[in-house]
Predict the 3D structure of the following.
Amino acid sequence: MPHKNAIVVGAGILGLAIARSLAVRGYKVTVFERNEKCVGASIRNFGMIWPVGQPDGLLYERALRSKSIWKDVCAGAGLWYDEVGSLHLAYNKLESEVINEFAKQIKINGL
Ligand SMILES: Cc1cc2nc3c(=O)[nH]c(=O)nc-3n(C[C@H](O)[C@H](O)[C@H](O)COP(=O)(O)OP(=O)(O)OC[C@H]3O[C@@H](n4cnc5c(N)ncnc54)[C@H](O)[C@@H]3O)c2cc1C
């Protein structure tokens, strides 16, 4: 098989996810990062993996797949994670209606 090389620019989560994805497909990957280490959004976020925030269908399926990849990566690298779920509070009537509608969908679809 010919040697496959790839270059990824940026060592944030997107760059690293792409680099990992290429590496598992047999590419020799080089990541270029303009800083000594990643200092962008990927080190400032809340660390939530939150598929429920995605709309039904392709995006939701993709989010579930991302979650399972994250779990593999964490297990492989010995990184801590906790599957705690999330708590959603309604601050007004409209938000309460949305939560109730969502809860009904869960009952209907058995999610
Ligand atoms: C406060 C906050 C909370 C968040 N919470 C969550 C959360 O809980 N869950 C979640 O999923 N998402 C969350 N996000 C969103 C998430 O953090 C971002 O969507 C994600 O980190 C973006 O990753 P990135 O790789 O695109 O960008 P970055 O992490 O910014 O990485 C881009 C990298 O590319 C490098 N770069 C850019 N240009 C070049 C160049 N020309 N040459 C070399 N290197 C270059 C930069 O130096 C940087 O290191 C949050 C975001 C914020 C701001």
About this structure: The pocket of flavin-adenine dinucleotide is lined by residues 9-15, 32-35, 38-42, 44-48 (CB under 6 Å). The two ends are 44 Å apart (CA to CA). Helices lie at 13-24, 58-77, 93-109.
